[in-house]
């Protein structure tokens, strides 16, 4: 019997009747079509009719080395023939041990212990629980509050929402969420006129200090997205903030949690954004941050900071499988090391440390090493900035900014539904663009080519022309 060829329209209707899509008002799909994806290759996604889309957002910031990457495919296939999964309580396996050892080598100094979760939000939950439990085990059970930056995003489970400051995600669930304080966010777009990004960041650290001085006895941890606040619109800030925040947290006995779920794995130009905390030369507004980085070379590492908790997810598996890791210090680890079960860290997920996901992560780290990805990305970012110059100079484009492999800018427009129109027009031009409000951003896979960057920039310009 001949199998009927599936079409876009079939899958679309079936999806809408059975799948409840994330972060979506489903009614909007009465007019806005879903895009059924059949396969991917490199930076391209293909629908069932063979139409292609350039994945400029790395499928929600997870994909690093392209869709259907042969090296990651091979690693997962190899692991599939050996062990698909085993529980991590009472058992261990080579992929999870190797991954923990390799991350310890790569991460800022002192983060020798890896705790595993399944996605970004679970990493946030783990860090919050671990921090508060640490203080309880250390005779300071009153330290149960957390602070985060204004406009922060750390995930959408209830604990993570308590340190997330995005009204849309939070308001409906207010009654269920613990109240935590926020402190001013050093986003350089908020600086006074004439005030430098650095001066503004320092002004924000003064506010942090005032808050810590008054409340540190009740505060367990301060959680930050280092250098870039992603989900609230790619806000970027001067690294001096991180350096000062580290000093203040140590001074007031408050843990520093670095949420590198989005910015880790090379996204900001170094493996982890915390490594850049000591950088002086910072020129994001001109799109030259990546170039400044290449001039500073390897000395960067020694200028970084070590948080008490480092959260990793998204890109760690190259965008293949859900996995998250909370890395922490020996000090934290030792506070739980005891004969009593109740002093141990009480947290688990069914798929904790899944071997397939760990192998995907190991293959991803192999690619970083084999292809000298961080250096290659510095060149790629310079090429991108050159090609993107007409975009940066466009009369309706404001606050063009870049760090590592992230670009963002605001579009001056009267249209209230700009994001949706931009998305729809993008699809017509073979681009998967997903603006946040009037902020357009690119976070492409690291395998994007010069030619593909040209396609991306030219067509984005066309789209902006027709929307302004
Ligand atoms: C995406 C993200 C999270 C949440 O990760 P999920 O896997 O979506 O739960 C947390 N923090 C930051 C900074 C993120 O970008």
Name its key features.
four-stranded mixed beta sheet; 37% helix; single chain; 16 helices; globular; 468 residues; seven-stranded mixed beta sheet; binds pyridoxal-5'-phosphate; Aspartate Aminotransferase, domain 1; Aspartate Aminotransferase, domain 2; 2 domains; alpha/beta
Characterise the protein shown here.
Mean pLDDT is 93; it is low at 286-302. The strands form 4 sheets. Strands 4-12-11-10-7-5-6 form a 7-stranded mixed β-sheet, sandwiched between helices. Strands 1-2-3-15 form a 4-stranded mixed β-sheet. It has 2 domains: 55-68 and 373-467, Aspartate Aminotransferase, domain 1, CATH 3.90.1150.10; 74-370, Aspartate Aminotransferase, domain 2 (3-Layer(aba) Sandwich). It has helices spanning 8-18, 58-61, 70-80, 94-106, 120-137, 158-161, 167-170, 197-215, 240-251, 289-296, 330-336, 355-370, 373-387, 389-392, 418-428, 450-467; strands at residues 37-41, 44-47, 52-55, 113-117, 145-149, 181-183, 219-224, 228-229, 235-236, 255-259, 309-312, 324-328, 397-403, 406-411, 431-432, 439-442. The chain has 16 helices and 16 strands. By secondary structure, it is an alpha/beta fold. Bound molecules: pyridoxal-5'-phosphate. Residues 119-121, 124, 153-155, 225, 230-231, 259, 261-262, 313-314 line the site of pyridoxal-5'-phosphate.
């Amino acid at each position: 019997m001949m199998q009927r060829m599936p079409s876009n329209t079939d899958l679309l209707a079936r999806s809408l009747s059975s799948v409840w899509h994330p972060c979506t008002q489903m009614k909007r799909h009465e007019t806005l079509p879903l895009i059924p994806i059949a396969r991917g290759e490199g930076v391209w996604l293909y629908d069932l009719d063979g139409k292609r889309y350039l994945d400029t957002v790395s499928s929600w910031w997870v994909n690093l080395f392209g869709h259907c990457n042969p090296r990651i495919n091979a690693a997962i296939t190899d692991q599939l023939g050996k062990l698909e999964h085993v529980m991590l309580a009472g058992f261990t396996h080579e992929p999870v041990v190797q991954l923990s050892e390799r991350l310890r080598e790569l991460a800022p100094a002192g983060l020798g212990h890896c705790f595993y979760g399944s996605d970004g939000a679970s990493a946030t939950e783990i860090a919050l629980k671990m921090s508060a439990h640490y203080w309880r085990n250390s005779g300071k059970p009153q330290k149960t509050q957390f602070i985060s930056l204004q406009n922060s995003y750390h995930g959408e489970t209830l604990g993570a929402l308590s340190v997330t400051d995005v009204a849309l995600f939070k308001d409906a669930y207010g009654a269920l969420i613990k109240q935590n304080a926020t402190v001013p966010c050093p986003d350089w777009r908020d600086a006074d006129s004439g005030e430098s990004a650095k001066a503004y960041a320092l002004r924000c650290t003064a506010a942090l200090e005032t808050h810590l001085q008054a409340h540190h006895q009740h505060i367990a941890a301060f959680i930050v997205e280092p250098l870039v606040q992603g989900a609230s619109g790619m806000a970027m800030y001067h690294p001096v903030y991180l350096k000062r925040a580290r000093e203040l947290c140590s001074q007031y006995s408050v843990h520093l949690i670095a949420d590198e779920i989005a910015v880790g794995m090379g996204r900001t130009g170094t493996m982890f954004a915390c490594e850049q905390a000591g950088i002086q030369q910072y020129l994001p507004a001109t799109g030259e941050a990546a170039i400044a980085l290449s001039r500073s070379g390897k000395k960067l590492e020694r200028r970084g900071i070590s948080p008490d908790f480092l959260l990793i997810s998204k890109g760690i598996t190259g965008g293949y499988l859900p996995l998250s890791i909370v890395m922490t210090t020996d000090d934290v680890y030792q506070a739980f090391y005891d004969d009593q079960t109740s002093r141990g860290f009480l947290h688990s997920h069914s798929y904790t440390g899944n071997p397939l996901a760990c192998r995907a992560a190991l293959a991803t780290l192999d690619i970083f090493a084999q292809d000298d990805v961080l250096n290659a990305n510095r060149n790629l970012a310079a090429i991108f900035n050159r090609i993107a110059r007409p975009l940066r100079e466009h009369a309706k484009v404001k606050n063009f900014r870049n760090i590592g492999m992230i670009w963002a800018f605001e579009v001056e427009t009267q249209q209230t539904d700009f994001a949706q129109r931009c998305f729809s027009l993008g699809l017509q031009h073979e681009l998967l663009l997903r603006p946040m409000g009037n902020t357009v951003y690119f976070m492409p896979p690291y395998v994007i080519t010069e030619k593909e960057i040209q396609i991306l920039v030219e067509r984005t310009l066309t789209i902006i022309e027709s929307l302004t």
